[in-house]
TrEMBL record:
Residues of the Reductase C-terminal domain: 316-402
Superkingdom: Bacteria
Enzyme Commission code(s) on record: 1.18.1.3
Record protein name field: 3-phenylpropionate/trans-cinnamate dioxygenase ferredoxin reductase subunit
Enzyme class, spelled out: oxidoreductase
Keyword annotations from UniProtKB, A to Z: Dioxygenase, FAD, Flavoprotein, Oxidoreductase
Length: 409
């Protein structure tokens, strides 16, 4: 009997991770990656960081063509998929062609959310390599760059803009950057960082309209009208479920998958930004973090290679703001009544917030303290009881909290 062919629809992070993970786990059939972009899979987080700030290509490409050739992994770029026809075991392309597929991993990611009327040469979104390269050309000294939305992407783009000598003005409804994602303490610290670096923060008032003007793009808020040379729209993404819908898959806020990444059609899996997975701690949730995309791809690879594995990771991510590294773990599951404990000095950009529920860590976010996040992961996974004062006390080694448990076991 011949080995099954596995096709990944969408050639981004999931595709690159799945290809490697399948081979590592001994999957012996052909692997075909179909992507509509004109280039091979690349590291998307680079696009708002190193690539945008400097044009760097270091670490950009995710798959080595020689490795693909040696491992029977076929990459077809510039290839747009219309739908999956699971009944006939094929993926149907928009040009009418078909690709045989016994198993499919749907990984179409997401596309930037926009607003009606927001278009034109001076309006940008950043999702693809081409988007990032086009925007970088506008980030020049003296140019005033508006950023609509002060989330992770918007703040990284503002940082890249001022790093390149442009002016950046960030518009956000919230009074504190990133507070909803990372809590008020870290949010305030990041807000201060951007102010000190010279970003013009227009926070706490809604943008009521945006229109092209004679001098640039005119942005209206309650506080007045601001004209910027270019406007970058960073108001989130929508999962790209078009292929899923045309294929008859169950779709809600993304493609519904079980803990193994399986969709409503058993031979079709989905992962990454497009997938709303069934998580043992958080219930159905769709996450837009690269580590989650990669781990989901690995779990699916294990399952199709014969060792069923569910994905139960507490969701880790990072963002770089200038040279400051920020990480988060388990934040999708934080509730308003969880107790936040601060360790270190957030305003000095050196600290961690832990969230406790019933004396157990359920999430953490850090500035320049990735090592605290590693310990938080262990505390969370093992549900080791800790006292708030132990977490807050810098004279207590966090690792000792793990060892206390090991001694006690
Ligand atoms: C600028 C930027 C910065 C980011 N920074 C961070 C960060 O710092 N930390 C973090 O954790 N995450 C970050 N992310 C999020 C991270 O990149 C995503 O979570 C990750 O890319 C998801 O991988 P994916 O494979 O699901 O989707 P993608 O990597 O988006 O790949 C999907 C691919 O499918 C293609 N496709 C769609 N429809 C079709 C079709 N019909 N036929 C063929 N191909 C199709 C798309 O064109 C795309 O190439 C960032 C994202 C962006 C855009």
């Amino acid at each position: 009997m011949s080995e099954p062919t596995l096709v990944v629809v969408g050639a981004g992070h999931v595709a690159a991770s799945a290809a490697r993970a399948l081979r590592r786990r001994g999957f012996a059939g052909p692997v075909v990656l179909l992507g509509d972009e004109p280039v091979a899979p690349y590291d998307r987080p680079h696009l708002s960081k190193e690539r945008l700030a400097s044009g760097s290509e270091a670490g950009l490409w995710l798959l080595d063509p020689d490795w693909c050739a040696a491992n029977d992994v076929t990459l077809r770029t510039g290839t747009r998929v219309d739908r999956i026809d699971a009944g006939s075991g094929a993926v149907v392309l928009t040009d009418g062609g078909t690709v045989p597929a016994d198993l499919v991993v749907l990984a179409t990611g997401g596309r930037p959310r926009t607003l009606p009327g927001l278009d034109g040469d001076r309006v940008h979104t950043v999702r693809t390599l081409a988007d990032s390269d086009r925007l970088r050309e506008r980030l020049t000294p003296g140019r005033r760059i508006g950023v609509l939305g002060g989330g992770f992407l918007g703040t990284e783009i503002a940082a890249a803009a001022v790093t390149r000598g442009a002016e950046a003005v960030v518009f956000d409804l919230d009074p504190v950057l990133l507070a909803r994602a990372l809590g008020p303490g870290i949010g305030a610290a990041i807000t201060g960082l951007h102010r000190r670096r010279g970003v013009d923060l227009r926070l706490g008032s809604p943008v009521t309209s945006v229109r092209p003007g004679p001098e640039g793009v005119e942005v209206d808020t309650d506080a007045g009208t601001e004209t910027v040379d270019d406007l970058v729209v960073c108001i989130g993404i929508v999962p790209d479920t078009d292929v899923a819908v045309r294929s008859g898959l169950a779709v809600g806020n993304g493609v519904d998958v079980d803990a193994h990444g399986r969709t409503s059609i058993p031979t079709v899996f989905a992962a990454g930004d497009v997938a709303a997975h069934d998580h043992p701690r958080y219930g159905r949730i769709r996450v837009e973090h690269v580590d989650v995309a990669q781990q989901q791809a690995q779990a699916i690879a294990s399952t199709v290679a014969g060792r069923a594995k569910s994905f139960a990771d507490p969701h880790w991510f990072w963002t770089d703001q200038y040279d400051v590294n920020v990480q988060g773990l388990g934040l999708g599951g934080i509730r308003p009544d969880d107790v936040a404990i601060t360790r270190g000095d957030l305003d000095e950009l050196d600290g961690t917030v832990f969230w406790l529920r019933d004396g157990v860590v359920v999430g953490a976010a850090s500035i320049e303290r990735g090592e605290d996040i590693s310990v938080a992961r262990e505390l969370l996974d093992l549900e080791i009881p800790v006292r708030p004062e132990q977490l807050a006390d810098e004279s207590v080694e966090l690792e000792d909290l793990l060892e206390e448990e090991e001694v006690g076991v």
